[in-house]
Design brief:
The protein is built from 18 helices and no strands. By secondary structure, it is mostly helical. The protein has one domain: Growth Hormone, Chain: A (Up-down Bundle). Helix 3 crosses helix 4. The longest helix has 30 residues. It starts with a helix and ends in a 5-residue tail after the last helix. The C terminus is likely disordered.
Length: 429
């Protein structure tokens, strides 16, 4: 099949590559500062339960902000201002977060402690991150509308984020160990600024091209040509429902585990900050080529089976964590994690973009982000306190059971009698 003219045009590639650079810079920043938030909070005097407050606040505000941003992002004219403003805001916030380490407890009024300053900052950051993700996803949905090769293009788009994260977490881990966590936050601020600079070159609106080719997910025909305002409930209970449920099934145990995993690796297991960043960075590096593999799998075996594959891999990973392996084995487990995460991420993002009604891509994107946010909220609020009370093995065991149940649900959706979901998997498109 020859590429559509729109795909081959320089204007298309400028827009596509600019959006890819925006996500690249955002994930460099996320990889520089995000994985160290828990350790940073602990270094400022926070307990495991208080780490849950910081992480839970970030995801909670993202949950509700996603729904609000989605309605605004339905209007293509607002998407670029949303992205640019969000990136500028996050650059300023992480600069302030870096400065928190320089605040002495004696300089604060009782009973305020330095770690508490991170709470409002993370609320602002979560709101801004949600805006950038919702608007970027809606723009990419319009840009790739109707193209049969969207899984590969979406996977390559998301691959830029994995590449950025993998490089950033390894580099920033070394920076954090050498000059302190504040150095990692300064790296994040600089890359947010780079993303902001790129975002202002985006066009204010991207008109969805009519490629005329079949849709890989097969949902465009459901709403193509619809001009009415589709209620949010109808979007959630319609073709978007499977991907929303699967985002919850994967995201909740994932957030439970990785809300405490940095502390488990660096402190409880005694491997240190550098080993922690290398382990996470290895998984992110493996994600990069596996994103391409995931796009191929979606076309070959369908989205539900690709979901199930990723979730089954994560069930095995959580069982391995439960067994508290040695550092060499943990590196092997993290390589497997890279494949599992790519299988989940490429599939969910492809389905979310393709199942979104064209007239409501902003709200559909917001729903997808909010489903992920809800999973993170529940996981972040449950994981750290549970680990503090009952220990890390129980968290890993519960996560293994939960994600295995999600894999079973995904395989159920892959049955021939699943109808629309089977069509959404790419079969018969």
């Amino acid at each position: 099949m020859q590429p559509p003219a729109a795909i081959a045009s320089p204007l298309f590639w400028r827009r596509y590559l600019t959006l890819s650079f925006v996500i690249f810079s955002g994930f460099v920043a996320l990889g520089s500062a995000g994985p160290f938030q828990a350790l940073y909070a602990v270094s400022l005097g926070a307990s495991l339960g208080q780490v849950a407050l910081i992480a839970g606040g970030y995801t909670t505000v993202g949950l509700f902000a996603g729904l609000g941003w989605g309605r605004i992002a339905d209007d293509p004219r607002w998407r670029v201002p949303m992205i640019s403003t969000a990136l500028a805001t996050m650059a300023a916030v992480v600069l302030v977060e870096a400065a928190v380490s320089m605040v002495a407890p004696a300089d604060l009024p009782a009973p305020v402690e330095p770690w508490m300053l991170l709470v409002p900052l993370r609320l602002i950051e979560g709101t801004a991150w949600s805006a950038s993700q919702v608007a970027s996803m809606a723009m990419m949905g319009d840009l790739l509308a109707g193209d049969a090769r969207r899984p590969r293009l979406v996977s390559a788009y998301r691959m830029s984020g994995s590449l950025a994260f993998s490089v950033a977490i390894v580099v920033s881990g070394t920076v954090a160990q050498g000059v302190g966590y504040a150095g990692s936050f300064l790296v994040a601020a600089a890359t947010f600024v780079a993303g902001f600079a790129a975002s202002i070159s985006l066009p204010r609106a991207v008109t969805a091209p009519n490629h005329g080719g079949p849709s890989t997910v097969g949902a465009d025909h459901i709403s193509r040509g619809a001009s009415r305002s589709i209620p949010l409930r109808e979007i959630a209970s319609g073709p978007m429902r499977p991907v929303l449920l699967l985002a919850l099934a994967f995201g909740l145990p994932f957030s439970m585990v990785y809300g405490v995993w940095p502390i488990w690796v660096a402190n409880d297991r005694g491997f240190g900050q550098a080993a922690y960043s290398q382990l996470w960075g290895l998984a992110a590096f493996v994600e990069v080529p596996c994103m391409v593999v995931a796009g191929w799998l979606i076309a070959r075996i369908g989205a539900p089976r690709t979901f199930a594959t990723g979730m089954a891999v994560f069930a095995a990973i959580y069982v391995a964590y439960f067994a508290a392996p040695s550092l060499p084995i943990l590196f092997a487990v993290q390589a497997l994690r890279g494949f599992g995460f790519a299988a989940y991420t490429a599939t969910s993002l492809t389905m979310a973009i393709e199942l979104a009604p064209p007239t409501a891509r902003g709200r559909a994107s917001g729903l997808y982000q909010s489903a992920q946010g809800l999973a993170q909220i529940l996981g972040n609020w449950v994981g750290p306190p549970l680990a503090g009370v009952a220990g890390y093995p129980l968290v890993f065991g519960i996560a293994a059971v939960a994600v295995a149940a999600g894999a079973a649900y995904a395989m159920r959706l892959a049955r021939p009698d699943a109808g629309a979901v089977a069509e959404a998997s790419g079969h018969g498109a």
